Amino acid sequence: MSEIQNVGIRGIEIYFPHRCLEMVALAEADGVPAGKYTAGLGQTRMAFCGDREDIISISLTVVKRLMEKCNIDPKDIGRLEVGTETIIDHSKSVKSSLMQLFTENPFIEGCDQINACYGGTNALFNALDWCRLHGGLAIVVAADIALYGEKNARPTGGAGAVAILVGPNAPIVMEGTRVAFSENVYDFYKPHLSEEYPVVDGHFSLQCYLRSLDACYTRFCAQNGHLVGASPITAASFDYFVFHSPYNKMVQKAFSRLFYLDRQRLRGTEHGPAVHPTLAPFDDMPLQETFTSKTLQEAATAVAAPFYATKVTPSTRLPTHTGNSYTASIYHSLASLLENAVGGPAALLGKRIVFSYGSGSCAAMWMMRVRAPIDRLTSGLHIEDQIRAQQCTLRHLHAATQPPTRLSFISRRPNFSNSETSPSAEKRLNRSENGVTPPALASCLPIAPPG
Amino acid sequence: MSEIQNVGIRGIEIYFPHRCLEMVALAEADGVPAGKYTAGLGQTRMAFCGDREDIISISLTVVKRLMEKCNIDPKDIGRLEVGTETIIDHSKSVKSSLMQLFTENPFIEGCDQINACYGGTNALFNALDWCRLHGGLAIVVAADIALYGEKNARPTGGAGAVAILVGPNAPIVMEGTRVAFSENVYDFYKPHLSEEYPVVDGHFSLQCYLRSLDACYTRFCAQNGHLVGASPITAASFDYFVFHSPYNKMVQKAFSRLFYLDRQRLRGTEHGPAVHPTLAPFDDMPLQETFTSKTLQEAATAVAAPFYATKVTPSTRLPTHTGNSYTASIYHSLASLLENAVGGPAALLGKRIVFSYGSGSCAAMWMMRVRAPIDRLTSGLHIEDQIRAQQCTLRHLHAATQPPTRLSFISRRPNFSNSETSPSAEKRLNRSENGVTPPALASCLPIAPPG
């Protein structure tokens, strides 16, 4: 069988719940300075679901919209995979629930992909490999609802979904060798099976993210340097970066880390002295210290600053306004870049894009190339419109009540609510029996009318 | 990139807990006739775990043994995926826990694959595609611990794990086009997140299995007929069958169903009158009735009977003695076939093997070909030795006690117990905090010394 060429991203659709919390208002409600959540986390807003939406309904909505937008005939889909860590059943996959959209074509491979925020990337890799070998079109879904039980972590919640159409003759293709890194670490995990909240060791998780970034970036440069064309390769050699974004400050730290890594990698070579000499004082800092050193962080941020606005900011628009959507986060970042790249989507043509992703711990880094105009791909995203239409409120549904949300309240109506996905919703147990606990913020926020 | 040839199964290792329940003894304890569990379900024994084993430890054990047996250098592995529905964490994958075996090579892609009993098959497909495109070796793990809360369903529990080495120049390769079938059905699911037990609609689940089989077999014959060589193609055209085995009676029903399907598919053709004429009385039976009709079942079983012993029985040895191991079940069946094929493993050389699999609802059917001697692949399985060494007991650990199991009691010692997989086990919450509920049989079985 001959391999199919130019397999990549042919379409992308995003969805996030319309309601959100303003970080400033949340800080006020929490009795902390606003800067703790804005400058401190780098976040602006955080999307959240009401009781009428769940992981199934937001996944159905985003897939339905992708199919309409891309005019997909369900019969052309051969693989469908879902990355998520919002688990409402220990056996039945979200993928199988999505099959209600494909009753005329049940011959679709795939299932759910699970490892914290990484599942969507595994789904994408599987879909790309499958298309290259078997032909046809694949759909990749990444969707999550991120809730935290600890008050300190609550501002890093969020919600969102993305659906990606993968197939041949795509305007965005993978290039070079993708690299992966995986460790057995307990930085963020969810051992309490009857609740939605993770156990998080925040400081350790930051280190795990950066350690994965170190490993991926070093290996990536070694394996793909010849494709980048610059000598020496540094972070400045790449046009755009997309990072998994648990909160924007993490993205800032990750980007500045690359400049430290460039110096470490190159300082023994002929290029050494010229590479970021202001970072020379940190050349011999023990590795473990580099993860926590504030002086290094400040120095690296200063080196990275001239590049951040053009190379990173375009991808941060959605994640800073929807919060952490776990598996969907990196693809919300990608969608943002496609719509917001300096000079408009047309400017991306022919430019190289580096993707980076780190989590739980599975991580990967790869490069994508825009090889054809992406106007059709981005025209229906309307990210700025959707951000403008976000409905900011401090009202969060109270745990003990029956679902009070009027469907009209979920404006920019999703295509599905969890009470409409019959027979799925009827067959699923109700949320309390289901072990799905109340929204995380219920106890700390005033109940008020939609604002 | 050129596609890598003859990618397939290069090694296979199985593991199951040493302790088991005899179906006859269990029936006696349950106060039902022994035949209900033996002839009725087609089962002989059922393996179960003690408190010292869990999904992580049995997965670690089977991978460690595969690596030793196949003399695998961890540095050669590029992808590792786990299919399971035994979820003890909603975020962290079993795959990431297995990375403790690969500390010298953390550059390994993959994560967990979830959809009831199907995840292992998705993992295998991913690994095959990955190897064909990217080279290197992959490991596929399928492992589960099947427990049922309802007394009636308990005899269909079980436990087991399998690890498969996938790579180039393999003695067993895939041939032809694999087919898939997926539906949004609620026949078996696990919405009670704080317990291990599924919600099962047994009669409906049987129909979903058969409906998936119908769809896969019909499509498979249409797409791969030219490879089989027989005209017309019927179930008799294939040498061996491997079915997902929730219990052996299901396998018997599935096999006999193929003969009914052959007649349905061919009766309008020139071959029609000659194809299983004893099934003619059911030609016009409404489809829904065919799933439940006892007379059809009896007639189809009679047609299938001459073929069952040679084509199916060789693959049923392990599943009838370990019970349902969910994702691992079909690969325990495969391992059984490899060791038990009539004439020994050498007899499989060049013969075609059809695999079939149905579940939750994702299903797939594909064909494998043994293209080189598999002696090295099968030599370390020792399935018969392991069955002989099963320790039958009615003793099941009592829920309320601290883990009382001496490691020496887990004979044919696993490489890992859950108290040894430090730091994983320490980091995980203890079983009760963890939401992992006590063993299913604790309440119905007498506590007695190991038998």
From TrEMBL, chains A, B:
Its EC number is 2.3.3.10. Residues 172-374 form the Hydroxymethylglutaryl-coenzyme A synthase C-terminal domain. Pfam families: HMG_CoA_synt_C, HMG_CoA_synt_N. Residues 5-171 form the Hydroxymethylglutaryl-coenzyme A synthase N-terminal domain. Keywords: Lipid biosynthesis, Lipid metabolism, Steroid biosynthesis, Steroid metabolism, Sterol biosynthesis, Sterol metabolism, Transferase. It catalyses: acetoacetyl-CoA + acetyl-CoA + H2O = (3S)-3-hydroxy-3-methylglutaryl-CoA + CoA + H(+). The keyword Lipid biosynthesis applies. Gene3D superfamilies: 3.40.47.10. CDD domains: init_cond_enzymes (cd00827). The keyword Lipid biosynthesis applies. It is an enzyme of class 2 (transferase). Residues 409-442 are annotated as: Disordered. Residues 414-424 have a biased composition (Polar residues). Pathway: Metabolic intermediate biosynthesis; (R)-mevalonate biosynthesis; (R)-mevalonate from acetyl-CoA: step 2/3. Catalyzes the condensation of acetyl-CoA with acetoacetyl-CoA to form HMG-CoA. Belongs to the thiolase-like superfamily. HMG-CoA synthase family. This is Hydroxymethylglutaryl-CoA synthase. It comes from Paratrimastix pyriformis.
